[in-house]
Amino acid sequence: MATYSIGDLSRREILKMSAVLGVASAASTRLAAAQTAWRRTPEQILGPFYPMRTLDQNADLTKVPGRPGRAAGLVLNVMGQVLNLKGEPVRNAKVEIWQANTYGRYAHPSDHNTAPLDPNFEGSALLTTDNDGRYRFKTIKPAAYPAGPNRMRPAHIHFQVSGRQDRLVTQMYFEGDPYLEPDRFFQTALEQKDLLVAKLLQPTPEMEPESKLAVFNIVLNAG
To answer: What is the residue extent of each domain of the chain?
Structure first.
């Protein structure tokens, strides 16, 4: 198994999350195989707020190393697998993630949103998939934010996944978001929009009682 940089996650917590991911991702990828014949995950824009600093290898975005506080908002456990079109796991893939905080603001100098920053929210991370192509991290559910006059971007998490042969930039959205259908970037996925939408599931007993679980599998061409 590849080495994970797990930040403030305890070994016990990681092992429990791994067990959940093994069950959840296996079930979801079997369903994906039956329904989608391993469709490639649609591309989405990189966006203007790609982190300018080196990404920390930290799987817990709800805490900033060296600070005692915790990020505000709904805690979200995100798990999934990186696969190729044959359904094979992509080992040692780099998974870069970045997102807005619970108020809808990025920790980026180009974000002029007047929503508050959260000094206890990490906001981005660099992960590495294990031998089964799995990744996992703990974060805060982001909020939608204004992207122009009378236009809102739906809540989303950015992903940039780099395998041995492929690189994919995409976004994970949330089921039931009222800003999804009007969003022009989401609409570029056409008939494959469903591949970008994750459901918020109830936590398992090992997770924080008030948190949610989202399973998001990412399919590359060759890996």
So the answer is: 11-105+115-219
* Tens-digit pLDDT profile for residues 34-71: 444 689 999 999 999 999 989 999 999 999 999 999 99
pLDDT bracket for residue 4 (50, 70, 90): very low
As to burial, measured by CB atoms within 10 angstroms (0-12 exposed, 13-18 middle, 19+ buried), residue 178 is exposed
CATH code that applies to domain 11-105+115-219: 2.60.130.10
Rounded (10°) CA dihedral 10, 11, 16, 19: 140
Report the DSSP beta bridge partners of residue 94. 128, 162
- pLDDT, tens digit, 9 for 90 and up, residues 190-222: 999 999 999 999 998 899 999 999 999 999 999
- Residues identified as active-site: 106, 145, 153, 156, 158
Which H or E run includes 33?
A: helix 11-36
**Which residue, 119, 4, 14, is CA-closest to 62?**
119
**Whole-model pTM?**
0.85
